[in-house]
């Protein structure tokens, strides 16, 4: 029976796993359509600033909590605050949030699974196929969408059941480098299309006239979503980390990669959107309409599309691994159940919980919750409510509950950073991070 206490075999394995948790649907799928709906270049600039000022300190905080305790999310808070059991609810909220996130994230993963399979046989960019209609067929046919969901869930179950080194780490080491290579191919083709410059300008030129309070709320949610912080997933990941690894260097690498991939995603998507006169604010379907259009203009486009979709599927899986792992590790810690058994049970529960979001674009299309369909409501609840609250609670915990000397020693251990770095981190976590989160959440309360 495998215990939840595993360990990364190397610093690279940890960084790639953390980057894999961050670089998935958040950076590749969600960033382009949210930016398209929220101001383009101005939104991206705000996202980058919030990622550096808010997201990076929060990422470090989760690393500190996990490595200091060598425990999964719920137990970590119990160890650090043994006299106040309520703090363990930060980890429990993370598990609830991850479960809800998986209930719509897995739906998109299923779409990608279907697209990957169909692209292999050359049916996605065939002359008779219209991208929008094809997307509608995939998402609007219940058995196809549910089949994709089932395959995506099964892939997660298999990898998580294999464990930390043999499953998560090996998968990330293989998947992430290949994704970057294919991304560069797509970006080069996208920016050389006729009319691409308008898309580049939209994404990189900050026009603040379209920015609203809601745009800033979405940028903060996107920052948290793109780094996978707020759910304590990375508390669990860093609990498998050796003490000689520099947390600042690891966090800096993950943040840099996340921003870079978000940049590549924008440069891959928006030039194509403008070149083919697509709707820039078309929402979740955007990526699935843009990719076929872009690759249809390339020699051997069907082959490259199939490769990219498979690698995009890999990136989606590496993110979902972290969500499954926080749930599985917590249950193994509490009840000492075998990893394989509990992973299968969690996979079944996630599949069932994902069915309403899966059917949003077909038989449950008329169902509305606070003016949003099931899929969009779940996304909004997780990204813009649960994630900010989770990050706020972690910020309060690490600055006011956790021992200050332990925070400092974990932050600087294995690193060349000094007292100045610690003071900057502490200032951001004490004043800037909670203030920004409270202001943004206050705006949300006033608006809704």
Automatic annotation (TrEMBL):
Q: Which keywords describe this protein according to UniProt? A: Membrane, Transmembrane, Transmembrane helix, Transport
Q: Does the keyword Transmembrane apply?
A: yes
- Domain of life the protein comes from: Bacteria
Q: Which InterPro entries match?
A: Na/ntran_symport, SNS_sf, YocR/YhdH-like
Q: Which PROSITE patterns match?
A: NA_NEUROTRAN_SYMP_3
> Where does this polypeptide localize?
Membrane
CDD domains (UniProt xref): SLC6sbd_Tyt1-Like
Matching entries from Pfam families are given as: SNF
Entries under PANTHER family matching the protein: TRANSPORTER
Protein name as catalogued: Sodium-dependent transporter
Species: Solibacillus kalamii
